[in-house]
Amino acid sequence: ERDDAIPRDLEGRRVVVSAGGTREPLDPVRFLGNRSSGKQGFALARLAAQRGARVTLIAGNTIGLDAPASVELVHVTTAEQLRVAVDKHATGADAVIMAAAVADFRPVNVAAAKIKKGAGEPNSIELTKTEDILAGLVQARRDGRLTGTAIVGFAAETGDEHGDVLTYARAKLKRKGCDLLVVNAVGEGKAFEVDHNDGWLLGADGTEQALDHGSKALLASRVLDALGPLLR
Ligand code: CTP
Ligand code: CA
Questions:
Q1: Which of 64, 80, 103, 184 has CB atoms 3.0–4.6 Å from 199's, for a disulfide?
Q2: How far apart are CA 62 and CA 64, in angstroms?
Q3: Which portions of the sequence form the region Phosphopantothenate--cysteine ligase (predicted)?
Q4: pLDDT band of 33, cuts 50, 70, 90
């Protein structure tokens, strides 16, 4: 796509994007993490900037992606650090897009020194829930602590014997209370798998758009297209 084919519809807007995976330390050398690459969040940040937005990209662990041009890049490690950074940058933003894969749980205890084999070695890791950043943003908006910010969530769903991807995604949209949920259908054995659709865009207003299989840049453009009407 030529540069001049990209619309400048986000001129004057401020957009916050989270990307990549969080890491929760166990000791100074070990962590609980996930396989998020950060590619989708980086693609969103890059395109939002190309479309004219002032973009803050808050990145956890990624596969070593180049920083997008003209984007403010903030590095974080843990879910708690991500929460603090998102909350800080969300204030006054026109949109927050939560593409990051946030740990749901973290170890209760973080050893100050490397955990060793031998006496005192652990046989289990006690976990506690992290805060839900996306739900926190929605709550802040309900409470009036955050105003005028559109909130976009991501969900990767597989579906199982109790429900298909869309059923779970619709429930997640309701539960999270965000304005838009980008749903990726992942994994094998989906009960109601559609051949050529990799996901859906679900709007809080009940609109549902199938997302055809395509690049992360293409998905980013679909997401930003859907975001437009949600901006104040
Ligand atoms: N998310 C978040 N804070 C968390 C966990 C998730 O902000 N502690 C955000 C993700 O960035 C994503 C959305 O919530 O935009 C959905 O994440 P997902 O893991 O699909 O949802 P969960 O509510 O954690 O449900 P599940 O039990 O399916 O993991
Ligand atoms: Ca989760």
A1: 184
A2: 5
A3: 15-232
A4: very high
* Least distant ligand from the CA of 18: 1
3-state secondary structure the chain: CCHHHCCCCCCCCEEEEEECECCEEEECCEEECCCCCCHHHHHHHHHHHHCCCEEEEEECECCCCCCCCCEEEEECCCHHHHHHHHHHHHCCCCEEEECCECCCEEECCCCCCCCCCCCCCCCCCCEEECCCHHHHHHHHHHCCCCCCCEEEEEEEECCECCECHHHHHHHHHHHHCCCEEEEEECCCCCCCCCCCEEEEEEECCCCEEEEECCCHHHHHHHHHHHHHHHCC
- pLDDT digit string (tens) for 131-164? 999 999 999 999 999 999 999 999 999 889 999 9
pLDDT above 70 (res 197):
no
Contacts of 139 (CB under 8 A, 6+ apart): none
What's the pLDDT band for 54 if we cut at 50, 70, 90?
very high
Task: Cite the active site residues.
Answer: 34
Write down the ipTM of this complex: 0.99
- Pocket lining: 130 vs ligand 1, CB cutoff 6 Å: yes
How many angstroms separate the CA atoms of 199 and 202, rounded? 10
CB distance 95 to 149 below 8 Å: yes
Q: Which two tokens stand for residue 12?
A: 């004057």
Confidence of residue 67 (pLDDT cuts 50, 70, 90): very high
Atom of ligand 1 nearest to the CA of 154: 15
Task: Give CA–CA dist 9/228, Å, rounded.
Answer: 8
